[in-house]
Design brief:
- By secondary structure, the chain is mostly helical.
- The chain has one domain (about 10-185).
- About 80% of the residues lie in helices and about 0% in strands.
- The protein has helices spanning about 10-20, 30-55, 60-90, 95-115, 125-150, 155-175, 180-200.
- The protein is globular, with a radius of gyration of 18 Å.
- It holds the Pfam family Hemerythrin.
- InterPro entries: Hemerythrin-like.
- It comes from Noviherbaspirillum album.
- This is Hemerythrin domain-containing protein.
Length: about 200
């Protein structure tokens, strides 16, 4: 899903959440996935605040929705490809993992529908709100039940975290999506460059 990485419409709060998630490279698997959870939860909360305030900035709304959907797509893929299979080998609760995959399928259906829509379309806001409710429920179950069981297993969470991060980076590149926080660093570098050039002017 394409994004305008240089847009100023993304708020400071979602940028700070994204920047925090980008620091997850050295985290174990559970901490890396929880960092993703916090980032997308903040984006859903920000969307609800925009709705409550009656904010009609459709460009900002669309960027926020695209950012959340892209992050969720990548997060779901690394879980399904790497984390869930490892968890299936490590814990004795297939029902929990089966339910998690079904919840992913429901979320992906809504993401697919949203990608074909624009702000202002009928049900656009409603679909994103429902997606947020699905995702928050999924996160709560995953963190309280699945992650708790995985932590007690003999899985090497550091190695698994490295594997998840490598795949996450590859997917960002493959899909042409800036890694969380990347646009902040680009903007900061540009600002530093401008101020340096001004200092050199006599």
């Amino acid at each position: 899903m394409p994004r305008n990485a240089t847009s100023k419409s993304t708020s400071k709060s979602s940028k700070s959440a994204q920047h925090a998630a980008s620091k997850s490279a050295s985290l174990d698997a559970i901490k890396l996935l929880i960092a993703d959870h916090r980032m997308v939860t903040e984006l859903f909360d920000e969307f609800e605040k925009m709705k409550d305030k009656g904010d009609e900035d459709e460009e900002a709304k669309q960027l926020l929705v695209e950012t959340a959907c892209a992050a969720l797509t990548i997060h779901a893929q690394i879980e399904e490809e790497i984390f869930y299979p490892a968890a299936r080998d490590a814990i004795d609760d297939m029902d929990l993992l089966d339910e998690a995959e079904v919840e992913h399928a429901s979320a992906k259906q809504l993401i697919s529908e949203l990608s074909a829509m624009q702000p202002g379309d009928d049900l656009y806001d409603a679909k994103f709100t429902v997606l947020g409710e699905y995702v928050k429920h999924h996160i709560e179950e995953e963190e309280k039940e699945l992650f708790a069981k995985v932590k007690k297993s003999d899985l090497d969470l550091d190695d698994l975290g490295d594997e998840l991060m490598q795949r996450k980076l590859a997917l960002h590149e493959e899909l042409g999506i800036p890694l969380e926080g990347e646009e902040i660093e680009e903007e900061e570098a540009a600002t530093r460059g401008k101020s340096a050039s001004r200092k050199n002017v006599h």
